[in-house]
Amino acid sequence: MSLPPFFDDYLHFLRFASVSTDDRYREHVHACAAWLSGYLQKAGLKSEIHATPGHPIVTAHSPRHPAKPTVLIYGHYDVQPADPLDLWLHPPFEPHVENGKIYARGSTDNKGQIFSHICGVRQLFESGGQLPVNVVFLVEGEEEVGSDHLAPFLEAHREQLQCDVVVISDTGMIAPGVPTFTYGLRGIAAMEIFLQGPSKDLHSGIFGGAVANPLTELCRLAATLHGPDGKIAVEGFYDGILPLQDWERGAWKTCGMDDAELKRITGAPELQGEAGYTSLERTWARPTCELNGLTGGYQGQGTKTVLPSQASAKLTFRLVPGQEPARILDLVETHLRGRCPPSITLRVERGHSGGAYYVDPHGPYGQAAQDALRAVFPGKEPVLIREGGSIPIVADFKKILGVDTLLLGLALPDAGIHSSNECFPVEHLELGMRLNRALLGALAVPRNG
Ligand code: BES
Ligand code: MN
After folding, report:
1. Is 157 left (phi over 0), alpha (psi -120 to 50) or beta?
2. Model-level pTM?
3. Ligand 1: residues whose CB is within 6 Å?
4. Catalytic position from the list 140, 143, 248, 387
5. Mind listing the pLDDT tens digit for each residue in 165-192?
6. Is 387 noted as a catalytic residue in this protein?
7. d(CA 356, CA 182)
8. Residues of the chain with pLDDT under 50
9. What is the pLDDT of residue 448?
């Protein structure tokens, strides 16, 4: 198999262990930002690195021609932790090529996808041509931890970031070879709760029965969040949600992803969720409440008869259009406080959040995106989907910069993002470059809207 252009540069990008959530990787994150900025410069753009209280933001732009529309291409160079490492067949930061795929943490999410856009632009410059539009790249290092410092950056740099539309490849394709346009994403709101019982760990025989066990109370509280029908039992949680439209419910039934495929990909023995909705509706257009981690008590080998003094849980809520993250966290906190017994002190810490996103796929920019997909996948009609994952800054692009976002993802359903053995098809790198060029061409044509 012939390797796509700039392949070695892509591998170089993947070797940075740019894990944003863990301080031990800070140097790697910064080194990755520095390399990326240099690479954007080499690609023909003017690039800058912007320090933030967290990880740096990298920007780059082409010369601005006032007559041309401006397209902002967003991506992230940070990655999720690779743990647990023993599940990887090859070290996650030493890219391994096998059967036409590159295996490495970040190969799909998001380094492969943002890199293909950078290379698409690089190719346009190198072919001596002018870009059909002005391009601004915005590549951040905190997407996987909620993009906390990006919204203030947008506020502070409105002018430099002013654009007509945002383009992102950080979502999925419904199946290999199927052109996919994502017109909606779920939002997210995170919270951590801490339950304190006795002032220190106790002998569970001497005190158990007379003193509440925070771990038990945590499980009890967590279990009140859902009803038996799979609905979230927090009062007001569903208020204001924009209902699914008939055309989307209809279209998703035939979009090529069914329950059997979902079971195959996930390995779950059976699917489960909110009553009254299909699996795709549940993941793409209905909110959820997930426990992401529980701590408390003894985790070591064997047994320990301890009555732990503390327990905690990490929670996230996926949100849909019509739900406001801060309000959802208010409702959940009220729910938990109202159910926490006096024997326990409850502390609630709010985490990152980002709103849900929805763009009319039939609007002028949506049409341009679909034209670009048709050009790259000749003879195939793009599939229109929403997705369950979140890209927290997308709602802010609309709120702060006033622009819509086009989501044209290149991730395959079995790419293993956030999981072990994450991979990206070698051919998707070039596919992404072609898509970039087709898209910039399609967006250069003025449209009524
Ligand atoms: N690329 C994903 C988001 C995604 C994945 C969208 C698949 C659609 C389909 C992104 O990098 C991501 O994982 N975001 C996090 C954000 C969170 C940590 C704030 C997510 O969704 O968990
Ligand atoms: Mn991700």
Report:
1. alpha
2. 0.95
3. 109-110, 143-144, 146, 170-172, 185, 188, 352, 387, 389-392
4. 143
5. 999 999 999 999 999 999 999 999 999 9
6. no
7. 13
8. none
9. 58
